[in-house]
Write a structure and sequence with these properties.
homodimer; alpha+beta; Creatine Amidinohydrolase, Chain A, domain 1; Creatine Amidinohydrolase; 2 domains; eight-stranded mixed β-sheet; six-stranded mixed β-sheet; 10 helices; globular
Chain lengths: ~400, ~400
């Protein structure tokens, strides 16, 4: 079930160890499911219980530690030797008496790793405050530090094999968005629209299937279109509705997001104008992006264009995307905003999403891109315009 | 957009405050999205950034604190007065320089709440180790304690209005599982099967639409059927495959899960025998469950039946379910396992799932139930048997 070659996984582990060495980290406890997948291949919906991949500077292969029943999936999906897959018993699961990190502490001590410099992913969803407290209690001789972003910043430049997955996700995206816009109509229930989106994106193409996206279809509508993270109800679309689709094609956990805005019926002047400005700005940003420019310089292109119209957008206009699990398809590295001085490089993949949100309407027109040797290319391919269905 | 009456929300807040008072908690910071929804009604896919609902013992209404762009959705979905909806600026989002909990600390101090006894949900996915560190740093005069489960244990007995939602989720479940079993066949790609499941569950019934379930369709197959949290690939189903569907109908964030096992072609003796034992045990547990019995007593009924066959299952055979967000539809309260002395009460809702997992195959036949005044009733309605498609 390996999704990349064993060699590619080993190269990733090597890069992680180099970064650990550089920072004097002896043990890295990876709890971010995407980072776990990146170094081990492990892939299952088990992150609702505590689990990790531990990388030891003085051991060749990482160790997967999780719930015993998920060790079966680890043996099937990870490249690790089976003695490096360690399961804890079920009475640790969601218990008020014992914590899985107590077990992890024991494993680390047994392996002679209990008194090391240990780094943890302090701001990851799957490393709770209690995880940290339990580890500190269980390993009083260890020192702890924050490895936030350590693996994420390695992931940020994709291998050719990863780019191939991103492009497949893009193909699913193109097909799915096209189908969604075709299906949308006045009188369709929003839940049926969401159902159709799920169907096409999960089915994928004839050549390859789709995976679940890390975020559900976001489809705010009408006067709620400015509330960009609303999902759906069972109400019907009405004439005059503004509809936003923010979706992602997903192939083997790799995401290619896109958003488009559709007017059901004749658009208002305000909507047309906002869409025009958004597209103009997005085009300018994509024309600008190439290796060597920084994330904040790309944002400035957008902001300067907006300024012409007397407008201002507070929120970032994009972020790095790729391999992920719920609740986010962003990689928590690059944000295209003032202050982010990341220099863009070939094979970085970004979702450029200059969403314009107002109290009573909104416009989103966005694309996922790959930075190429000389500029950038979009991963999906749907016309960049305000769609109008009359 | 309120999903329950304002009075029901206020009653919930009152119950939370009573529990706070009992424990000497002055400020409760709720970061679990399901608990946030429970007390405020707030519902959006925004939990990938830090957010919370804060309950102050000396203030009447809770305060929503989150990303400024999500404040729009908060104003639309929560019952709270608008001055109690507070947004932080975008430069706090996934920043390596500042943390949203720094902002929260400032808000608390401004409201005169910075030196109080503050409780946080220590083991919730959306309260990371960094959240806790930042709060402790920002509020040096506060004392902190763990409110893990505080709201969850209030949620565990459902109101009649919530039971109505659970029953609707059960109707979606019944329809969806029936459709899934009908659609399943040799030669169907697993991704197309998943697509069909998503379609029917999201579309819901003619009367009401479905919501997204907190866990994606779990559908381990064949020799991988024992790896219970695997999702899907784009391979085709083969003759002789064992197929497990673990799914949930969802209505307005309320879940009614179910699992069934299907044999494509003639089942092996081993499979038939395991299915028979599973159903027998499940039936006995459901016959036993009524108000007044404990969770561990219900498990003992299962374990004793299994013992007759010389079998043993380590993992819990069920848990409380209801309102939730990814990554789990379990409520992190009751586990049906040895040591759990929770006394069952009317309007508790449980997913009874005695899954039998082996290295090379597995069986899952499970039902969601409501504890009634005299026993229990299932929320979905699909025959409890090993399905065979030849």
């Amino acid at each position: 079930m390996l999704t990349f070659s064993k060699e590619e996984f080993q190269l990733r582990v090597q890069k992680v160890k180099e970064k650990m060495e550089e920072r004097g980290i002896e043990v890295l406890l990876i709890t971010d499911p995407a980072n776990m997948n990146y170094v081990s291949g492990y892939n299952a919906w088990s992150f609702y219980v505590h689990q990790m991949v531990a990388v030891f500077l003085d051991e060749e292969e990482p160790v997967w530690i999780g719930r015993f029943m998920d060790a079966i999936a680890a043996r099937k999906t990870a490249w690790l030797k089976h003695e490096n897959i360690v399961g804890y018993s079920d009475n640790y699961v969601q218990s008020y008496e014992r914590h899985p990190m107590d077990y992890v502490s024991d494993v680390l001590k047994e392996r002679g790793q209990g008194n090391k410099r240990i780094a943890v992913e302090m701001d990851n969803y799957y490393f709770t405050a209690q995880c940290y407290e339990s580890l500190k209690k269980g390993l009083p001789n260890a020192t702890f530090e924050d490895a936030r972003g350590l693996v994420n910043w390695i992931k940020v430049v994709k291998s050719d094999a990863e780019i191939e997955y991103m492009k497949r996700a893009g193909q699913i995206m193109t097909k799915g968005m096209t189908d969604a816009i075709n299906y949308l109509n006045v009188g369709v229930r929003k839940c049926d629209m969401a159902a159709e989106i799920y169907r096409t994106f999960t089915s994928g193409t004839e050549e390859f299937g789709g995976d679940y996206a890390s975020i559900v279809p976001l489809m705010p509508t009408g006067v709620d279109a400015g509330a960009c993270h609303l999902t759906w109800t069972d109400e019907k679309y009405k004439d005059g509705d503004i509809v936003i689709f923010e979706l992602a094609g997903c192939y083997r956990r790799y995401h290619s997001p896109m958003s488009r805005t559709i007017s059901l019926g004749k658009p208002s002047e305000k909507l047309e104008e906002t869409a025009k400005i958004t597209i103009e700005g997005l085009n300018k940003v994509l024309d600008f992006i190439k290796p060597g420019v920084t994330a904040e310089e790309a944002e400035a292109v957008w902001a300067n264009n907006l300024k012409k119209y007397g407008l201002f957008k507070e929120s970032r206009i994009g972020y790095s995307t790729g391999l992920n699990y719920p609740p986010d398809w962003g990689e928590h590295t690059i944000s295209i905003r003032p202050g982010d001085k990341t220099v863009l490089q070939p094979n970085m993949t970004l979702h450029v999403i200059p969403g314009m949100y107002f109290e009573d309407f909104g416009v989103e027109i966005s694309d996922a891109i790959r930075v190429t040797e000389t500029g950038c290319e979009t991963l999906g391919n749907v016309e960049r315009k305000l769609f109008i269905k009359e």
